[in-house]
Amino acid sequence: MYISLKSSLLVLGLSSIVGSFSLKAADRGTQVFKLCSYCHGDHGEGNPTIGAPVIAGLPDWYIKRQLVNFRSGARGAHPRDTAGMRMYPMARTLNGESDIDAVVKVVAALRPVRPDETIKGHVIKGQNTFKVCATCHGPKGEGNQTLNAPPLVGANDWYLVRQLQNFKHKVRAFDPARDPTGASMAPMAAGLSDEDMLNVVSYINTLKAATPQ
Fold first, then answer.
1. Each residue of 164-175: pLDDT tens digit?
2. Which listed site, 2, 11, 70, 104, has its alpha carbon 20 to 30 Å from 172?
């Protein structure tokens, strides 16, 4: 009886400790996200005026990889990546992996939003170009974690164009050894003209009907 009571108290005690840690982690994630919200918005809706894209709806694995890349300087350290350079010092304020994991949970749980369309291109031509993109990012732009390909649907169209340009000119993934996943996009973007980019992103805009309401 004594042993049983003691065991029960131990389980209750451990549950309280675990619950306390979980609460602290959740609180920390919310606290860290306040810093993100200054640019990306309270709901992760983004702010085109300052070049901050939508982050709501992004998968946790992709968010974490980008935060790790920004924090290490694998991304956002190129002098021509002005928007990325703002993220580098922000990511450096994160206190290791625990902070990254905490804020990732908060961002990944945000309700997806539908950004306004700002790009006008030839949708049919873009659809043909997208066939190559679909091999990794999926036929509906839904992304594929196995291939480290993030979702494209629901992203800001201006942001997608900017990233294609950054990949093409090796502004993003400028050091393939530090960002081999990002570097795999460079040859894909290299063959695209500015017009091609506008066209393919215009087609991606038509896929937004597949995003959650």
1. 999 999 999 999
2. 104
Summarize the confidence of residues 159-163 as an average pLDDT.
98
CATH fold of the domain at 115-213: Cytochrome Bc1 Complex; Chain D, domain 2 (1.10.760)
For the chain, what percent of residues have pLDDT higher than 90?
85
User: In terms of CATH architecture, what is 17-113?
Assistant: Orthogonal Bundle (1.10)
182, 101 in Cβ contact below 8 A?
no
Q: What is the mean pLDDT of residues 32-44?
A: 96
Cβ–Cβ under 8 Å, residues 199 and 129: yes
Rounded distance between C-alpha atoms, residue 66 and residue 61, angstroms: 9
Q: What DSSP string describes the chain? A: -HHHHHHHHHHHHHHHHHHHHHHHHHHHHHHHHHHHHHHH-TTS--BGGGTB---TT--HHHHHHHHHHHHHTSSS-STT-HHHHHHHHHHHTS-HHHHHHHHHHHHHTSPP--PPP-----HHHHHHHHHHHHHHH-TTS--BGGGTB---TTS-HHHHHHHHHHHHTTSTT-STTT-HHHHTTHHHHHT--HHHHHHHHHHHHHGGGGS--
58 close to 143: Cβ distance less than 8 angstroms? no
Q: Is the pLDDT of residue 195 over 70?
A: yes
